[in-house]
Amino acid sequence: MLHAQKTREPLSEQIEREDEVVRVHFRRRPYPSIRRAIPELPFRPDIVHGHFYDAAGPTLLLARRLGVPFVLTEHSVLARPLTPLERLAFREAQRVMPVSQMLRKSLESSGVEARYEVVPNVVDLASFSPAPHSHGPIKRLVAVTRMTEIKGVPDLLQALHLLQSRRQDWTCELIGGGERGDDYRALASQLGLGNVVFRGELRRPEVAAALREADLFVLASRTETFSVATVEAMASGLPAVVTACGGPEELVRPETGVIVPKQDPAALAEALDRTLSDLGRFRPKEIAKGVAGRFGAEVVGRRLLEVYEEAKKAAGATTGWGPRLSTTNL
Q1: What is the Cα–Cα distance from 26 to 15, expressed in whole angstroms?
Q2: How many independent structural domains does the chain possess?
Q3: Is the dihedral of CA 54, 45, 304, 69 positive or negative?
């Protein structure tokens, strides 16, 4: 596997080799570094798989140099216009795989031509799974998010302020870092939210433990293309109250949670109040089972292998994959 990663380190371009993985660290222009890494590859890849539109151009150029087909996965909405090379890469890719229908529509509305097929993100079921749990007198809410406005943290705090006027049998943990953390701590203090705890950025096992111990997950984002945090919470057996901000609308169903309008603290508070009073209707094992059936590594991995096979055939290959599929990921 060839893994290219952007870095901010001043000593920009490094090539590391470990077993069958070649890692390339670059600052600005990845392709020269990737080209130098090609001789380090322990195999000739059958296909190149690029992630994010920043990597679309290098993915196209590398695939051409190797003489193999390529596919792209897109995780985010466009923050800038695509370059001509990036637009060409999207058109020539055998498949472009947005992680949600919302993102596909966003790309299409931006005039990005491609052979689209939605393939979702994968959830780590080994780390996120339900644990035996009974609801105590104090219900535990948890939000895993960045401390930024686009993640709707001010809306969440306003909603919790309204919820506090209705009931006090809850606490809420906010997990995640971000540049507005101090501002939101100050806002929570102004709103008198003594039962809201900011835990900052936690390691993955700590996040998983917090989800297993919680009763309800809440997401107040203003836009999401997918929301891995929501899927990880549901994999942990949690019902979810989320905003209609894009990706989460494709994740949460009536039997797994509630969807409310975004940027509407009153609606969010109402949904939290109603759901806290009705936690018994949710079945944690069934919620987790549903996530495994849609986003587990085996399910998503099988679909990716099908996409690779289709891409190889579409590119005019006459030979099979052989005993082992090899890919190059950017």
Answers
A1: 9
A2: 2
A3: positive
Whether 275 and 256 have beta carbons less than 8 Å apart is answered as no
Query: Are 261 and 315 part of one and the same domain?
Result: no
pLDDT digits (tens, 9 = 90+) for 196-253: 999 999 999 999 999 999 999 999 999 999 999 999 999 999 999 999 999 999 999 9
Strand order, beta sheet including 47-51: 95-98, 70-74, 47-51, 327-329
Does 288 lie in the same domain as 301?
no
**Residue 145 near residue 221 (C-beta atoms within 8 A):** yes
Query: Measuring CA to CA, which residue among 165, 185, 269 is closest to residue 220?
Result: 269
Does the residue 15 lie in any domain? Answer: no
Q: How far is CA 153 from the centre of its chain?
A: 18
Same-domain status, 235 and 286: yes
Q: Is the residue at 11 inside a domain?
A: no
Decide if 96 contacts 71 (C-beta within 8 A): yes
Does a structural domain hold residue 127? Answer: no
Residues 68 and 160 in one domain: no
The CATH number for 212's domain is: 3.40.50.2000
- Residues 216/258, Cβ–Cβ less than 8 Å: no
Co-location of 63 and 157 in the same domain: no
236 touches 207 (CB < 8 A): no
pLDDT band at 318 (very low <50, low <70, confident <90, very high): very low
The alpha carbon of 122 is separated from its chain's Cα centroid by a whole number of angstroms, namely: 8
The two three-digit tokens of residue 128, written as one number: 């996120």
Residue 78, domain extent:
43-122+296-329
Does pTM top 0.70 for this prediction? yes
Closest CA to 133 of 12, 288, 264, 252: 288
What's the CA gap between 52 and 248, in Å, rounded?
20
Q: Where are the alpha helices (DSSP H) in 97-152?
A: 101-109
Beta-carbon contacts of residue 305 (< 8 Å; ≥ 6 apart): 325
Kindly state whether residues 260 and 180 are assigned to the same domain: yes
The token pair that represents 73 in the structure block: 């996965």
Same domain, yes or no, for 112 and 212? Answer: no
